[in-house]
Amino acid sequence: AKPPPSVGSIVSPADITLQELQSPITWVFENNRLWAVLDYIGNTIWRNFFIDWRRLSAVGVTEDTRISGTGEPKPASEVLDTVLGTVSDDLAWRIDNFGIVVISTREVIGRMFPSPDEAGGTGADAPE
Predict the structure, then answer these.
(1) Through-space distance between the first and last CA atoms of the chain, rounded to whole angstroms
(2) H helix or E strand, kind and range, residue 128
(3) pTM, two decimal places
(4) Does residue 119 sit in helix, strand or coil?
């Protein structure tokens, strides 16, 4: 994660979203629909998510895919990583230049946000 911007610097929408994703959130999911879980995470940190349901359905993930999980409060980015990793190893996310969290398959995310130093994880690195 990037350090907070210095006073007087211009803060991009992506930087704001990255900061908000570091906010600890509580998470208790018991057989909830994936769309509701992602909606909860986005609403809790006041950030927009774009979920590529068409691509997700190609790897067997739908809005109605059920998820359960709970844990101590932790950064929203880690909860998002946990949720997506629980659902499928094929899912990833990144923050676009407008500060929107884009969720899709690893293949699509890799094409949209090429990164030569991609080393795994689902997207908690800096926006590109």
Answers:
(1) 12
(2) none
(3) 0.81
(4) coil
| pLDDT category of residue 11 using cuts at 50, 70 and 90 | confident
What whole-number distance in Å separates Cα of residue 55 and Cα of residue 62? 9
Return phi, psi of residue 59, to 5°. -110, 20
Strands (E), 16-100: 24-33, 49-51, 66-75, 91-95
Beta-carbon contacts of 43 under 8 Å, excluding residues fewer than 6 positions away, are none
Rounded-to-integer distance, Cα 6 and Cα 16, Å: 13
Distance, CA of 47 to CA of 23 (rounded, Å): 12
Please state, in angstroms and rounded to a whole number, the distance separating the CA atoms of residues 84 and 115: 20
Indicate the residue type of 112. M
Mean predicted confidence (pLDDT) in 83-93: 96
The tokens of 83 are what? 């949720």
Q: How far apart are CA 13 and CA 97, in angstroms?
A: 7
